[in-house]
Amino acid sequence: MPLYEHVMIARQDLSSTQAEGLIEHFGTVLADNGGTLVDQEYWGVKTMAYKINKNRKGHYAFLRSDAPAGAVQEMERLMRLHDDVMRVLTIKVDEHKEGPSVQMQKRDERDSRRERR
């Protein structure tokens, strides 16, 4: 099956547990359509470069999936219809990289810098 990476931005007025619940919900949508959610990362609330739907910040989530094209299309369709999801980006990749994404690596570096002080 093809491999995909998805980045989702949810509204800023959601709690972090609600944003993580969205990740779980869309993971089950993939599973119901014959795919699997390989990995998921919640990046937290980040400031965006420009306003989207009058929101300056948003909850960012990163998903790695192994699913047929039909399952991904259905998940994207439901994401676009969901009121809490503002933007979705899906990219087809040749292979998933091992370990955390670049955003999570930056967070780990910041934490290690604080410990040195």
How is this structure best described in words?
With about 120 residues, this protein is α+β, with helices and mostly antiparallel strands. The chain is built from 3 helices and 4 strands. The chain has helices spanning about 15-30, 70-80, 100-115, and strands at about 5-10, 35-50, 55-65, 85-95. A 4-stranded antiparallel sheet has the order 2-3-1-4. Helix 1 runs antiparallel to helix 2 (about 70-80). The radius of gyration is 15 Å and the shape is globular.
Strand line-up across the major sheet: 2-3-1-4
> What is the overall shape?
globular
Question: What level of helicity do the residues show?
Answer: 25-40%
User: What portion of the residues fall into strands of 2 or more residues?
Assistant: 35-45%
Q: Give the averaged pLDDT, no decimals.
A: 87
The number of helices is 3
Main β-sheet, in a few words?
A: 4 strands, antiparallel
Measured between the Cα atoms of the first and last residue, the distance is 47 Å
Radius of gyration over all CA atoms, rounded = 15 Å
Question: Based on helices, strands and strand pairing, what is the structural class?
Answer: alpha+beta
Low-confidence region ranges: none
Order of helices and strands: EHEEHEH
Q: Give the strand tally.
A: 4
